[in-house]
Amino acid sequence: MARFQFNFAFIAFLITAITLTTNPRVLSSDSESDSFSIIDFDSNILFHQDYSPPSPPPPPPHPPSASCTDDLGGIGSIDTACQIVTDVNLTRDVYIEGKGDFYIHPGVRFHCPNFGCSITINISGNFNLSVNSSILTGAFELVANNASFFNGSVVNTTGLAGDPPPQTSGTPQGLEGAGGGHGGRGACCLVDKEKLPEDVWGGDAYSWSSLQEPCSYGSKGGSTSKEVDYGGGGGGRVKMTVKEYLVLDGAVLADGGNGGVKGGGGSGGSIHLKAYKMTGGGRISACGGNGFAGGGGGRVSVDIFSRHDDPQIFVHGGNSLGCPKNAGGAGTLYDAVARSLTVSNHNMSTDTDTLLLEFPYQPLWTNVYVRNHGRATVPLFWSRVQVQGQISLLCSGVLSFGLAHYASSEFELLAEELLMSDSVIKVYGALRMSVKMFLMWNSQMLIDGGEDATVGTSLLEASNLVVLKESSVIHSNANLGVHGQGLLNLSGPGNWIEAQRLVLSLFYSIHVAPGSVLRGPVENATSDAITPRLHCQLEECPSELLHPPEDCNVNSSLSFTLQICRVEDITVEGLIEGSVVHFHRARTIYVPSSGTISASGMGCTGGVGRGNVLSNGVGSGAGHGGKGGSACYNDSCIGGGVSYGNAELPCELGSGSGEEMSAGSTAGGGIIVMGSLEHPLSSLSVEGSVRADGESFKGITRDQLVVMNGTGGGPGGGSGGTILLFLHTLDLGGYAVLSSVGGYGSPKGGGGGGGGRVHFHWSDIPTGDVYQPIARVNGSIHIWGGLGRDEGHAGENGTVSGKACPKGLYGIFCEECPAGTYKNVTGSDRALCRPCPADDIPHRAAYVTVRGGIAETPCPYKCVSDRFHMPHCYTALEELIYTFGGPWLFGLLLLGLLILLALVLSVARMKFVGVDELPGPAPTQHGSQIDHSFPFLESLNEVLETNRAEESQSHVHRMYFMGRNTFSEPWHLPHTPPEQIKEIVYEGAFNTFVDEINGIAAYQWWEGAIYSILSVLAYPLAWSWQQWRRRIKLQRLREFVRSEYDHACLRSCRSRALYEGLKVAATSDLMLVYLDFFLGGDEKRTDIPARLHQRFPMSILFGGDGSYMAPFSIQSDNILTSLMSQMVPPTTWYRMAAGLNAQLRLVRRGRLRVTFRPVLRWLETHANPALRIHGIHVDLAWFQASTSGHCQYGLLVYAVEEESERIFIEGIDGVKQVEEESRGVNNTHSENPSGHWREEMLVSQAHRSSHGGIIVTNSLRMLKEKRDLFYLISFIVHNAKPVGHQDLVGLVISMLLLGDFSLVLLTLLQLYSISLVDVFLVLFILPLGILMPFPAGINALFSHGPRRSAGLARIYALWNVTSLINVVVAFICGYIHYNSQSPSSKKFPFQPWNISMDESEWWIFPAGLVACKILQSQLVNWHIANLEIQDRSLYSNDFELFWQS
């Protein structure tokens, strides 16, 4: 700044001399308008220096101090304590100095009401201005240790100012009634249409240099009369220096005086407060006075280190009664501790400025606030506004730089932050701004560069953040550069940045939100704007478009009108518009669906390809990428503009349809360049539009018709411009548009403009294995010509081109050549992709594309499905089969391997289980324990709990439980005790016992639920679960009877004491359970227990239910054997039981009518003849029918000695059905071998009974039996007769088991070649059912003991038959796959001797599985029979051979 001081003084002197010579009104005191104006007196504007005079000489020494009592009428002494208790009216200045305290009592007035009167108090003690007391004076100065201004107290210097400093213009001249100036200019209500509102003011501002310690009086307001001075007085001055504690609950006033409706308001005075600590919410005011025109605000400076409350501080201008919207200018508020300056006009609208002159550099101010309609201006040339912190403009604040009529200065603004909210910054000239953060909210920055291009460039730098919100605007009619290192965010509608030449650079990211605009040049620019030059006559490309400079400076010599340079990421949701738009050294550009980058209609009006005009004014279209359309009118035509430029690297402006200066002409499209040859764009993603369209004819005004000589024609359409993209990757969304189309012609024959040019210049196109698609194009690229009107012709289409593609790639976007073609040369033409040689490939193969395209032959191929494997496109199964020589050889090898493994498995089984020698038969002595040397079926007669032999001596009765022992029908006892035990039990206690034991026998709901779920998913597991729960239930019953029950139902005291007399037992299959009753030994009756012949007829129930897993069997425990030994030898009874069990094995549930016939026949031919010798006869009978229809089967045993007897059929509840009949039976069975007496009499009676009946041959047809799903399964798995050859059967089962598992694996492999879903379906419907037979079979074959082996073999059989469901699923999957194929690929599914393992043989492995499983089932049936019956003579038809074995 120092180098301009001489220039200022010299220029001011020359202008002053010229003005005084040419404008005599300046010297006249009676001029009509004496208000200060920039038009009338320019030198004052150009020389806006501080109006304060040079520093005065040191003040004279203070006069002697006034006395407390003599001069002030107080009490006490100033050196101790002076108390003012009465009003004091002074007429002159007073100086008070002492070492004591100074108190002014409540309600006391301490006044000196003269203009400029001064009261100075300098004490060492405390100062108190009590409640409702006041000090009135022109100047008040206080120095004290502590000071207190209580509620209602006031220090008032309003309108009592002395003379303002000399050589200042704070008091206005003339008779306009303008306000006085001080901190802010005074208002002036003069209206002059030739001047701007801010060019007219009253008194000027002064004392800028002392605003930190203000000490000037305010100025007087102007008057509207020569005779009477109506102007309000200026505000006085107040200075307080308090060393410690200042309490301010009162008011300190230095306001300007009011001028009324005929005078201007005086300006506010000065207030300077300095203290260490301050409290209180009092009022501090140095406002301008009200008047015809309001006075300017004063100056307030607060130097308080610690403020605990916020007092009300006002320095606004006064109200203008003559122009209410133009109050006086705001004064200044300076906070010395924060070093901040505030200009606030208290929301009073004004056109009057507050001058901001030179800012201090050492130390820098921290913050500057312009708010609440405050208007601040920096009028000096080449000024610098620099603060350490924040510059904030809020609530209609205005900050101006320079003068509107001299827009040739350059200004600097330096701060940490620039915050604007509902405010305006005006710059006349150029602005160099440097901040870290620039935030705008509904604000404007208006830069008027004038016509001087040398100073017309403004630079705005915000290193961290630039945000525009709520319709904020940065506007420049010259060049503008916006630089930063962080984010530039135009956050919503109405946010604009526009300039004639706009450069945005160095930001990390730029975000243009929907409704926001970046524009260059300015739309509808005025004549004083600096207009960029367009190179419309150049046919070659300007070098800076292809090789732009590395720096990002604003350069007027370059072609760009809008450049975004060195920005990492750019998001355009709004509009970016310019004539030549350039994105240089950017990384990514993203244009969402709402975004547009446009150069449409921003090109040349004339240009190389401009259109031609017919004599009647109708114009043809302009040309560029294509020729312009011809204009035709009344059969007279003229050709359109020529095509020009380079399609391979275009960078030309579109041409217009007429002369550049003609009215109503249309312009061509501009240029949009993204990237450069050296620095291509990394990624361009477009969902919106990128346009460089030619302008269409929109019609012309009446005035333009006159300019066109009244012709009725109009121009043709402008040609499309250029979109030149240097980039790596492109993503063009579904609704995206890249457009460079020609404009429409005018009516009456105007031609359409030619299309423009779009070029994609790819950089570093990857090839080979590193190739990645460089473009995803789903949107539209438009380059068509514009339509002609009426007889006019349409323009030709433009061009779309791309950089030449390397080998293997073709097209504008360098895509891979189609499958079956290859390209071994460089270029982009589709014809360069030649067909691959027609060599033979597998019939399941097809040519494929590879990454980077195919550059050489042979062309690669792949199988048509992933289930086929290269190179022959076999399935995994076929690959396995053909590896071993084909289907037949593979089958033979597999068969041999299975036989070998089966032999190894059989040998291992013999080694593992061969030590278990099967027991042979041996006689059993009468009354001994069960002899386990009997065959297994004889040992089936065992129960889980053996009884001592002597227990049979005290046995009274056996009571069978009813029910099938299932989850839906558990075991239960009837409540009524049978006749046989009524003498040994208490009936009431017995009923209680039955309730308890029935409750224990019942199952929980969740047990049945689990069983139901397992029955659906895996029935073998359901069977195992049921047996486990049955075993637990039986154990619980036995524990209850043995240990928990107190035997209270028995009459025997000994039984109750020893917990004896009751015992629960069950058959080994857990299907039949019974309760035995014994004597306690202390009974006195000798007829109990009854002998065997007294118990006849006696029922013996079968165990089992006739199913595969639990066949019928007769139980023969020690008690029963001991009882029967009273009439039948044990060996005979055991043999009879073994033979009967062998016959009962063959009985099948669901086919009882058929399978019971051999049992009846065997009883008549083998059992009864042998038993009749001992006086016993047995019949097959049914017992205990339940409500569900279930009944139990067994034997009815009775004696045959008597001719006539009563037949007793015992029910489970102990009630006997008694029928009298004459049987006429002889002792020899030959007299009535057929038993017709039982058929004719007992059968009918038995069926009428609800408790049972005898079954004979003729009554079988009357049996009622329910059939379910297991009836069908019984044809596959059922109990059979033994066949012997156990080792051979085991070998074949081993072979089939291995074959089954092999077929399962092959089936799964075949399904995997179809679909993985099919594999899951087969495996999990039913879950893993297809795999379980193999481990179940191995477990059964390698188990010890016949009984365990037989049980596990039955489980294995269940898994085997269950897995048929999985095989059915495999059939369905294969069938669906085969029928979903094309008819040409189908073959007849069965071709003997020609198995190729193609899709037509899908059925082979599932069919093999079905056959294998059926064979396994039959062999397992024989295997179980061999294990359970090792004495094959049990099935002998020879009576003698059966009983002799």
UniProtKB/TrEMBL annotation:
Highest taxon of source: Eukaryota
Coiled-coil region(s) at which residues? none
Region span, Disordered: 50-70, 160-181
Answer whether the UniProt record assigns the keyword Transmembrane to this protein: yes
| Name of protein | Uncharacterized protein LOC105116085 isoform X2
| Signal peptide from the UniProt entry | 1-21
Biased-composition ranges for Pro residues? 53-64
Q: Which gene encodes it?
A: LOC105116085
Alphabetized, the UniProt keywords read: Membrane, Signal, Transmembrane, Transmembrane helix
Q: Reply yes or no: does the keyword Transmembrane helix apply.
A: yes
Q: Which Pfam families match?
A: DUF8003
| Stretches assigned to the DUF8003 domain | 800-874
Q: Where is the chain membrane-spanning? A: 888-908, 1288-1313, 1319-1343, 1355-1378
